[in-house]
């Protein structure tokens, strides 16, 4: 086994999944301090890897057939010794094989058979019962023993850039605690109503004296405008949607982040900020934020009091509106508890 291996990890998407690779990457780095570690992702998620101190490089996966020749040349250049593929697809299995690495591991779960089994030297399966009852980070860590790497850490860490932190301190500049609100989600059904976000923001500023800052992605502008229009008290926003590195810095400056189960939730947890996360019917164990001290709010499951029987599709967490069963009082109480907990830790 080489003393300084060259390791490629393949995980195409999404933001939360890429961030949560952190504990797997941390164990690789602790076991092989001199390793060169690269991660192959869709280009949209490369910024998250740039904030992970255990990653040496990212490799953008090709989007079009015309990009494949140049991609394969870049892929072969590092002479990888190990490949870990966490995307069970034919395309990523082919990428793993094209590396020529002597160790190529494919990870899959449940009843989904591994694609192109012959392209791997090792295959690891996560039984469905185990997969559904543990955080996704544990799924990633199951790949380590097959490579002779012990699991000694479960840390997921992103480190914001000092230039971003300095820039955002000048914009936020709050004397008291900051509640950062990210109200968006890539699934419209998982979005808590704008009027309730506005009510919580008002109460946080009225009753707790905290500054509220609200941000989102490029597609969240209308939602943010709706929340601000319904709020009685001024809510601070940025001139434009922050980049992922800027959002990570802003999350670290905040005392608490209020958001949905989403990629930004995982970014906030990875920079060490406590979150209040709103869940619908999705698995809140499998997709929980890394670290301790977070508050996850979810209506009781299975649902017995559907808020929209004509719209919800039972069993499909992307098409159920369960998050709307959460009340303003519940969310405000969770934010208040988190702000108080953070304040006591700082005072202590």
Description:
This protein is an alpha/beta fold. The protein has two domains: 142 residues, Rossmann fold, CATH 3.40.50; 181 residues, Glycogen Phosphorylase B (Rossmann fold). 35% of the residues lie in helices and 16% in strands. It has 13 helices and twelve strands. A six-stranded parallel sheet has the order 3-2-1-4-5-6, sandwiched between helices. It has a six-stranded parallel sheet with strand order 9-8-7-10-11-12, sandwiched between helices. Strand 8, helix 10 and strand 9 form a beta-alpha-beta unit. Helix 8 packs across helix 11, helix 9 crosses helix 10 and helix 9 packs parallel to helix 13. It starts with 5 loop residues before the first strand and ends with a helix.
Brief descriptors of the model:
348 residues; alpha/beta; Rossmann fold; 2 domains; 6-stranded parallel β-sheet; 13 helices; 12 strands
Strand coverage percent: 15-25%
Task: Supply the CATH architecture of the largest domain.
Answer: 3-Layer(aba) Sandwich
> Termini, distance in Å?
47 Å
Largest sheet: 6 strands, parallel
Residues in helix, %: 25-40%
Please give the order of strands in the largest beta sheet: 3-2-1-4-5-6
